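From the thread on structure requests for the teaching lab: each student submitted one protein with a one-line request. Submission from student K.M.:

"Model Secreted protein from Streptomonospora nanhaiensis, C-alpha cells only."
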Amino acid sequence: MRLIVENRFALLGLVAIALTALFGVAAVTQGVDPGGAPEAATAPVESDLRLCPPPQGEDRATTTAALATGAPDGGGEGELTAAENTAEAAPVGDSGPFTRTGRLWSADTSGAEAATAVTARGTMAAGLEVAQATVGEDDPYATEVRCPAPATSTWFAAPGGITLEGLRLFLANPDGEPATANVDIYLSDGPSYSDDTRGIAVEGRGHTEVDLTELIQGSPAAVVHVRTNAGRVAASLFAERGGDGEDWVPPTAAPARSHVVPGIPGGGGSRRLIVAAVGDTPATADVAVYTPEGRAEHETLTGLGVPPAAGTFLSLEGPLAEQPGTAVVEADQPVVVGVAMDRADGDDTAYAPAAPPLAGPLNGTAVVPAAPEGTESSLVFAALEEDAAAVVTPVDADGRAGDPVDVEIPAGRTTAPDLEAPEGAGFVVEVAGGTPVYAGRVLTQGSGGDAATSAQPLLPAPARIVLPEVDDSLTSVVP
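Reply posted by the TA:
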C-alpha cells in the first residue's frame, strides 16, 4: 500500500476508480436514465414563510389575511400559524393553528410593533398568498402590502424626493442568526448611498427601519435595491406623500430588457412610469401601453433615454386617458421599472410593479386573500399576443366558493370585468388555456373623489414546483 500511495499516478487511478463507483451508485439510487430526464419532475409545495411589516399610521385598522388553495389532489395535512417575528414569537390571531385550505384566514394586526411571521406547512403552503391591508376607521384610507418571503435581493421602483415627503425601508430577519444588508439607490443623477445604507445589521428574529428620505431629495424617481451579504431579509418599502397620500411600494422584477407592468388602475391624476438603468451603460427604452381600447398611440412612448446607473420617468397620463392599463417596456440594456399613481389632489397614491404572467399548469393560478370590511376589490387583466381567458372564483368568509366567472381577455387589450362578490371575499384566479395572462388587484375604500386605493399584481401561487433536472454527469455527483 505504501508503494501505491507514493506513486502519484497510482493514487490518481484510485481516485478515478472511487469516482466511477460513486457515479454508478448515484445513477442507481436516483434512477436516472443515462440520457437525462425526459422532462422536469415536480414536487408539492410543503412550506412557506411570509413576513408582514409593522402597520403604519394611527387610528386605522390593519388586517393580515391568507388563503391557500391546498394540494391539487385535495389530500394531506397542513397548518398555518402566525406569530410576532421576535425571540419570544408571541402568537398572532387565534391561539391554535389554522388547518382549513380553501378558507379565508385573517387576524387583526393593528397594534403590531414587530413584523408578523406567517408560516405554512404541508398542504396549507400549497397555493398560498398572504397580504396585509390597512384601512381608515373614519375617512377613506387604503394601503396594502403583499407580505414578502425572505430573500437575498429585492428591487423597488418609487418616486423620488420631489414627489415624496418620506421613504422608509423595513427589513425583517426570520432566522436566528443576524443578517447584514446593503441598500443601493438609483436617482436621476446617479447612485446615492450613505454609511447608513451599508452593512445594515438586522438581528436574528428582529427588524430594522432605514429612513431613505434624505438620500432621494431632488430626484423625480428612485429605484431601490436591497441585497444581503449575510443571511436573508424580507424587505418592504413605505412611501409617504403627505396627508393620506401614502402606500407600500410593491417589489418589482429584477433588471431585465423586457418588463410588463399589469393592473394600472384607471382614474384621474398622474401616472408615471419609472425606469432605471442599473449598469454602466445608458439604455434606450420603448414603451407600449394597452387600455380597454387597445394599444395607445403616443409620440412620447418611443426612444426614452435612461442614463447609466440612474433613473428617469415617463408620463403615461396621455396614453392611458384615465383608463386602466398595462405597460410593456422593451430596452436595449437591463432596466428596472414600475408605475407610480396619484390623484390630482395628492390625497391618494398607489404603485404598480413589473410582474410575471399567470401561465402554464404550475403557475397559472393566483390567490387574492380576503379584503377588509368596508372595501371593494376589482381585478384588471391583460393579454398581449393572443386572446386569453381566466376563471375567477370568489370565496366568502366561510370558505364557500361562489359561482365562477369566465373572463374573456382580447389580445392587446386591458380588461377590467365587473365582478359580483360578497363583502370581504377573496378570489382564486385560474388561467384557462396556455396563453399568458397579466393581472392585478385594486383595493378601494370609499367612492368618487374621496376614494382611497391600493394596487398589487396577481402573482402565481403554485401548489407544485419544478425540481431541477439531474443526469448522471460528474457535475451531478461532484459539486
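TA comment: DSSP finds five helices and 34 strands in the chain. The helical segments are 2-6, 8-30, 317-320, 360-363, 474-477.
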